[in-house]
Fold this protein.
Amino acid sequence: MKQILHHQIFTKINDLPKEWDKLAVENIFLSKKYLQVLEESAPQNMLCFFIALFENQQLVGTAVAQFLDGTQMETFGNRDRCVKTHFRNYTFKNFSSQILFIGNNMLTGQNAYSFLPSASAVALLKELRKASQTLSKELISRRKKVHLISFKDFAEHELLDFEKAGFSDYYQFEIQPNMVFKIDKNWHSIEEYVNGLTKKYRDQYKRARKKTLDIKKRKLDLNEILLCEEKIYDLYFHVAKNAPFNTFLLSKNHFSSLKRHLEHDFLFYGYFLNGELIGFNTLIKNGAAMDTYFLGYDEKIQREKMLYLNMLYDMIGYSIKKKFKKIVFGRTALEIKSSVGASPEIMFGYIKHNNPIIQWQMPRIFKSLQPKVEWQIRNPFK
């Protein structure tokens, strides 16, 4: 029998094929329980779609797509105020702000799709490209302009499949690296990690820890997250608005939705000073990897107490204790993450503009849209 590939696109988790989670077994971010969070609490300027790929009647691939409407954003980030930033924001809003992602723009790493190992990745990428075109037409029919279609984030070894699948008319780009902390199998506690640091970075650890002796850290359950929801959002929003570049803002119920659906796989840690919540960080268990998620803090206290650095140490300590193999730190605050031992992993993507002339200029335009980050790789280990 001839093998025929086809796709279906869904917006409701309850409509997904019953076999969906069998393909997402190694990635929680493609599981129904996580996708339920996207359905329930995605950013206001984001539409989420779920793509099923079939070979005849067999489900052989699953994918996530997001349409991001940047025209609904009042600001893309307030940290950098200069002519170049104003030009970047103007260019983005007017020529590149409405983007269809095949992948998850809220995460770092390959969380775009999962294919059955026995299926042809090249053939499925071709079908996924067709699905992106189907989605683009659907959005246009809803009076949504689609400036760009982008596939993100992929490691270098995955690029050959895209080349074979005929993505030569897309612009291949390199984005800021994903900072990944690999946990030594011989570590069993945070003390063994600290013993492996050079004197300079052991001193940094000790100095940071002394700063937070009066801060109480504890894990919050769902009811506590709901009770603190307004304060949590204020702390998150403070960090988000001061980022160099933002394309979305989380909804206020996002963290409670995560806790409700992911339960013990989602960890929310609150930091309290004199009984008041002054910061938080979040983690998501993803198989052998621990993924760091969004955080928030009071900037004044953060500086005084080295709170962000202490959060990184807390994440490392927990992940070592629980025998995770690595921590995915994402692509922000690159140098400080490097200073605790994370290493950069280069990520790539593909992008195509609906205007051929703009696509021809994409190398120059993309460079102008990327916030320039200068940083130095650190090696804190002996």
